Amino acid sequence: MDISAIKKRYENMPIDELVTFLATYNKDDFMPEVQQVIEEVLLERQDEIDSYKQQEPNEDIESGGDPSSDSGLISRKIKCKDCDYQGLVEAYDTQDYPKKQIFKLLGKDNQGYIYLRCPNCRTDISYSPFELIKFK
Ligand SMILES: [Zn+2]
User: Are residues 45 and 61 in the same domain?
Assistant: First the structure.
């Protein structure tokens, strides 16, 4: 395994992709060597991540405006397959948002499917990585 190539990949990842990756990052999905590389890169890019987060407009979240508008946290927006409720994928920076808008992250399986719980109808839903990309 070429660790330096993996490291490069995360070092060169666009910041929005990296933040989205972080939102679903689960250490246990990676081998310890890879984990270490990812965490090194995350540390190196911490400032970038922080300033990206500050740039994210989130007025529509705080004011309870139209969550379907195409601004702000688009890449992490998610819609429940059951009740069509729209919210955000839980991440390290979503503690500040109203709980009722956060789809709790339950985990990821070995095919890359992500499991989330709808805050509205409490249904557990699985999303393929492709479906998450669609919400960009
Ligand atoms: Zn729902």
Answer: no
Instruction: Supply the pLDDT for residue 120.
Output: 96
Q: What is the pLDDT of residue 58?
A: 54
Give 114 Cα–ligand 1 centroid separation in angstroms: 15
Three state DSSP letters for 95-118: CCCCHHHEEEEEEECCCCCEEEEC
Q: Please report the pLDDT score of residue 44 as a whole number.
A: 93
> Distance, CA 87 to ligand 1 centroid (Å)?
10
Boundaries of domain holding 103: 56-134
Same-domain pairing of 60 and 49: no
Q: Are residues 64 and 114 in the same domain?
A: yes
pTM, 2 dp: 0.43
**Which H helix or E strand runs over 94?**
none
3-class secondary-structure state, position 34: helix
Give the chain's domain count: 2
CA of 32 to the centre of ligand 1 (A): 36
